[in-house]
Amino acid sequence: MSEAPSARIEEARQRVARRLRDLRQDAGLTGQDIAQRTGWQKSKVSRLQNGVTPPSTDDIRTWCRVCGADEQAPDIIDAARTADGMYAEWRRKNRHGLKLMQVARAGIHRETEHMRVYSSTLIPGLLQTRAYAEALLADIARVKRIPDDSRAAAEARVERANIIRESGRTFAFVVEEAALRRHVGSPDVMTEQLLHLLDVARYPAVSLGVIPASAPARWPLETFTVYDDAKVFVELLTAALTITAPSEVTQYVEAHHEMTRAALFGPGAYRIIAEAIPSPS
User: Fold this and answer.
1) How far apart are CA 195 and CA 106, in angstroms?
2) Counting Cβ atoms within 10 Å, is residue 154 exposed (0-12), middle (13-18) or buried (19+)?
3) What is the set of domains in the chain, with CATH numbers?
4) Mean pLDDT value of segment 151-176
5) Which run of H or E residues covers position 194?
6) How many C-beta neighbours within 10 Å does residue 41 have?
7) What is the pLDDT of residues 11-34, one digit of tens each?
C-alpha cells in the first residue's frame, strides 16, 4: 500500500530542506553565516534547513545566492512548489463526481508527444475498456464517498483514450503482471479488457511491456505518468501529485527505464496477457 499523502508531503518538504542544508555545507558556511549574510534570525535558518518551516520562493533564492549557487534556485523552487502548492486533494476536485477529472486531463494528453506510464496494480486508463473503467470508477466513487457518475466518467475516459490511435505521438506503457490478474468487475469484463490489451499492444504508437511476476523484486513504485519528460503525475489513494522539479522528473524517467528493462514485450508480453484471461465458467 502507498504511504499516506501526509507522509509524502513531509518527505517532499524534507528533500527541499536537505538540499538547502547541503548547499550551505558545500559552500563551507554555518547556520550563523547564513543568518548574518541574509539578516535572518538563526531560528529561521534552523527551521528552513530542518524542514520545520517551508521556504518561500524568495527564501530559496536568497539562500542560493549567499551560497553561491543561484543556478540551483529554479529546481529547488519547483521542488518546494511540488511539496506545498501542487498537491491537490482528489476529494476537492472530484466533489461533483469523476467525469470532470477525466475531461480535465484530456488537455495535457493532447499537448504531450511522448508519454511514459507505469502501473503496478491496474490497467492504465488509456488502455481500459468502457466496462473495466466503469467498474473501477464506481469502486473509486464508493471508497471516496463521492457522487457516482462512473458511467459518464468511463465514457469520458474511453473518449480520451482515442488519442492512442492517432499519429504524431508515442505511448510507452509498462505494467506489472499483477495488474493483469487483479479482477475489476466480472470475469467477462476482465476477458474483454485483456483481449483489448492484446489488440492495442499492436497499435503503431503503443509500446506495451509486462513485468512478469517471476522478475526479481524491485523497490515498489506508485502508478505514475511522465509527460514529455517535463512533468510527472502520480496517483495516490486520496490525492494526485504533480511533479515538475527537473531533478525529480529525471528520477521518474530513470525509474521507467528500469521497469522497461525488466519487462517483456511482443510475444512474451502477449503470452502473459493471454494466460491472465479468466477461464470460461
Assistant:
1) 25
2) buried
3) 5-85 (1.10.260.40), 88-276 (3.30.870.10)
4) 92
5) helix 187-200
6) 10
7) 778 889 999 999 999 999 999 999
